Amino acid sequence: MKKENIKILFERYLEGKTNQEEEKIVLDYLADQTNENSEFHQVMEKVWDKQAKKTDHSAEAEQGLVQIWAKVEEREPKSHPLYAIFKYAAAIVVIISAALAWYTYQKVQKPAQIAITYFTKTTLKGEKVKLILPDSSIVYLSAGSKLIWPSRFQKGNHRNIRLEGEAFFEVKRDTTSPFVVHSGQMQTQVLGTSFNIYAYPQDHTFSVAVRTGKVSVSANSQGKMKQLSLLTPGMKLFYYLNKHNYSVGTERITDINSWIKNSFVFKDASLPNILKSLERYYNVNIELQSNQLSKCRFNATFSNKSINDVMEEIHIMSGKHIKYKIDTNTKTITVWGKGCQ
């Protein structure tokens, strides 16, 4: 039989597709070809010389070897007399060697994919944490927020993470792997910069403020992401989720991440929104008992103050029209009044 036909038959043997007569042809041929000067022996030596010197004891390798032995045992001739055992032993060794060489080659050509797992960090009211991502980017996660990120980022692909709540990012620059923050229907993309995202779903307002670099902000429009604006340092974008529109303004660079150092800045903010933020920052429950106070708006900065001091400042800023009561046992603050000054 021609060598080409033997090769085809050998491949069929390893796949378990040969019949008893074809098996005998393969084994007889290989048994005759296993001396040191044979063409087949020389080919096998070259194959093994290319393999790693260190034995692979991984679980994957062990499983591969088990499968190879099972295949050989399954295809091994059962009816040969004792005198033929030694003849066919060499052929069986060749089959094992060829199969192992093929397995190792496949492993080199198609390296095993490292599984990607995802981590989630959720902060409680009154809690903030600093996180370091796999690419060495830094995230400061604010109170009542959740961040989801992968165990590793793939070079050349987007570095995708998800955020609910507020966080300040210091992103390591990588022009080949854009850093993308997904927040509901909003998407913020950068290459390397620092910026703050405010994205609490229940507040219905999304904002991005840039401290350094450039930031692209997009929104989902009829199933497609549409870029809203390209922000530079000192710029801040507000997106109103219910109205599906946005505005762009400015903010002092030093105020953008001031909350990290317990300094809370509010610009033309409504009283209900201020109270929501204070609930998260100070881990308290605030009950607003007057609809008239919803129209009150303030510009205020509270730096390293207790919640008692903050409530007293709001009381004074309103011309003492806003009243409050703090229950320290239940950590509840009741707010009422007839309006603002």
UniProtKB/TrEMBL annotation:
Keywords: Membrane, Transmembrane, Transmembrane helix. Gene3D superfamilies: 2.60.120.1440, 3.55.50.30. Residues 122-215 form the FecR protein domain. InterPro entries: FecR (IPR006860), FecR_C (IPR032508), Ferrdict_sens_TM (IPR012373). The keyword Acyltransferase does not apply. One of its GO terms (molecular function) is sigma factor antagonist activity. Residues 264-333 form the Protein FecR C-terminal domain. PANTHER family: PERIPLASMIC SIGNAL SENSOR AND SIGMA FACTOR ACTIVATOR FECR-RELATED, PROTEIN FECR. This is Anti-sigma factor.
